[in-house]
Design brief:
It is a single chain. About 55% of the residues lie in helices and about 15% in strands. By secondary structure, it is of the alpha+beta class. It has a single domain, classed as 3-Layer(aba) Sandwich (Uracil-DNA Glycosylase, subunit E). A three-stranded mixed sheet has the order 1-3-2. It starts with a helix and ends with a helix.
Length: about 80
């Protein structure tokens, strides 16, 4: 299904999605917040919202991850604008 959509980025929400896509048994705490490549797609694992409800102290890290995603989207938009 990913090939059909051809996304510019993938956001993997939670450990299960991260393990399945990245084929990596490393825990979400170590994976989160870093960019990886999956089939030439920029991919970032983030905490699952249910985890954040149980661990509100991790919200700062989650916010930082969302900022990284926003920055990546802005960079992609800038690249697209420069190509036209």
């Amino acid at each position: 299904h990913i090939e059909l959509v051809k996304p510019k980025i993938l956001v993997l929400v939670g450990g299960t999605a991260s393990s399945a896509i990245l084929q990596n048994e490393t825990g979400i705490t170590r994976l989160r917040g870093k960019w990886y490549k999956f089939r030439d797609i920029d991919t970032i694992p983030i905490y699952h919202p249910a985890f954040l409800l149980r661990q509100p102290s991790q919200k700062k890290q989650a916010w930082d991850d969302l900022q990284k995603i926003k920055n990546k989207i802005n960079a992609l938009k800038k690249e697209t604008n420069n190509e036209t």
